[in-house]
Amino acid sequence: MEKSQAKIDEFAFILLAGLLFIIILTVAWSSLPKPTLEVSPEFISLVAVRGSTAKATLFFNGSASNVTLKAKGDIANWVKFSKNQFPLAQATEITLTFYIPYSIEFGTYSGNIEIEFDGEKKTIPVTLDVVEREAESYRSFNLGDFSVSYFSGKEILASKSDFEVVKGYFVDYPSTLVAPIDEEMFPILKSGFISLMIEETNSAGNLAVKFNDEIIFDEKTGAGEIKIPIEKEKIKSSNVIKVEAGLPGWKFWMNTVYKVKSLEFGINYEGINFKQSTFSLKQEEIDNFKWGKVIFQLKNRTGEGNLIIKINGEEVYRGVPEVSVGGLFGVYFSEIPLNKTNEILFSAEKASTYELGRVTLTIAYSSY
Q1: pLDDT band at 20 (very low <50, low <70, confident <90, very high)
Q2: Residue 219 above 50 pLDDT?
Q3: Which residues, listed in sequence order, are joined to residue 97 by a DSSP beta bridge?
Q4: Range with the lowest mean pLDDT among 108-112, 235-239, 274-278?
Q5: Domain span at residue 345?
Q6: Do 129 and 105 lie in a common domain?
Q7: What's the pLDDT tens digit per position in 147-195?
Q8: Which of 88, 93, 156, 260 is 20 to 30 Å from 166 at the Cα level?
Q9: Domain with 287 in it: what CATH number?
Q10: How many CB atoms lie within 10 A of CB 132?
């Protein structure tokens, strides 16, 4: 029994030592620094003519034992890297040279630069616009990802229910409702409305409604719904709605009674969520301007209204671009006056939303 017990104790000791070793390895492994890698720019946009070359530079920073670069998509066979496999221990620049074939058609081509490092992955989207040899120099502006929309709706701001208003020659019981509005709503405020649901009345006299001390309704009415529109200019940050009964006239022995099921005050709003950006040009680029192009990926849209693009107040596009999965949509323009400082505006028509990605503006000009 003693020998058997000794063998069991020895086995338990070995098992415990092995378990402690595994724990130590796990802690040591988890404490090792994880690979980090920063890459800029986040998006590459180039313009080139057929049979030419175009170059771009990727800037790497961080730490990784093995970084591998691969080109995918339309441009996969056009790219050569100054190096595409390397360890990263300090800031590094990699040059990408794009060799544009003579045989391809004019248009926009897209793809990705896939960056793999120590089990992680990053993707840099690429667009390459192949054009005719009508301009020799190009400027591109990356406008990023954003959404534009035109929205409308209504909102009930204050309400009350189940009350009476009474008036006679000896009694007067009106009812009041206070309705505040957030200041942020005023830029999109279109109009207001009051809704009254009369449950029961003896119709001995009029029903009067005052909005901020101004009478906006004063009639003898029966049971049913009453809707009263309110002009935008009459609405304040704090509004008082007063409902009261009128005198019963020659029936001096009666009281005018209106039983109100509900009283509501609401607003109608309408607004535009737009995207506005500015871009600067040199005088040489303005004087020798040939054409421009706005390229974007349409990620999603709702509604049937048009997308609108304006440059310096001049409309360059109004329409419904096709939804593309990974593809790009392009808008060309040429007859637009340009200045040293310019504005590009994206907006949408009523009840529509456009989600755009990888938006780029390119300006082409001759250099002679």
Answers
A1: low
A2: yes
A3: 55, 80
A4: 108-112
A5: 145-150+272-365
A6: yes
A7: 999 888 899 999 999 999 999 999 999 999 999 999 888 988 999 999 9
A8: 156
A9: 2.60.120.260
A10: 9
222 assigned to some structural domain: yes
Going across the sheet that includes 238-245, the strands are 175-180, 238-245, 207-211, 214-219
172 and 129: one domain? no
- Residue at a domain's end among 71, 98, 133: 133
> pLDDT at position 83, please?
92
Residues 183 and 73 in one domain: no
Tokens of 334: 């040429």
Q: Match 């404490």 to its residue by tokens.
A: 31
| Domain at 69, CATH number | 2.60.40.10
The whole-angstrom separation of Cα 261 and Cα 272 is 36
Q: What is the Cα–Cα distance from 105 to 224, expressed in whole angstroms? A: 69
Q: 50 with 109, same domain?
A: yes
Whether residue 218 is contained in a domain is answered as yes
pLDDT tens profile 272-293: 889 999 999 999 999 989 889 8
For residue 279, count other CB atoms closer than 10 A to its CB: 16
Label the pairing between strands 120-131 and 238-245.
Answer: unpaired
3-state SS record for 62-104: EEEEEEEEEEEECCCCCEEECCCEEEECCCEEEEEEEECCCCC
Alpha-helical (H) ranges within the chain are 2-31, 283-287
| pLDDT band at residue 129 using 50, 70 and 90 as cut-offs | confident
Encoding tokens for residue 52? 């030419």
pLDDT of residue 47: 82
Q: Who contacts 256 (Cβ-Cβ below 8 Å, separation ≥6)? A: 166, 167, 168, 202, 203, 204, 205, 206, 245, 246, 247, 248
- Considering the domain architecture, whether residues 247 and 276 belong to the same structural domain is answered as no
Residue where a domain stops, chosen among 271, 300, 326 = 271
Share of the chain above pLDDT 70, in %: 87
Tell me which residue has tokens 């990974």: 326
200 domain residue, yes or no: yes
Examine the domain organization and report whether 279 and 189 are in the same domain: no
User: What's the structural domain count of the chain?
Assistant: 3
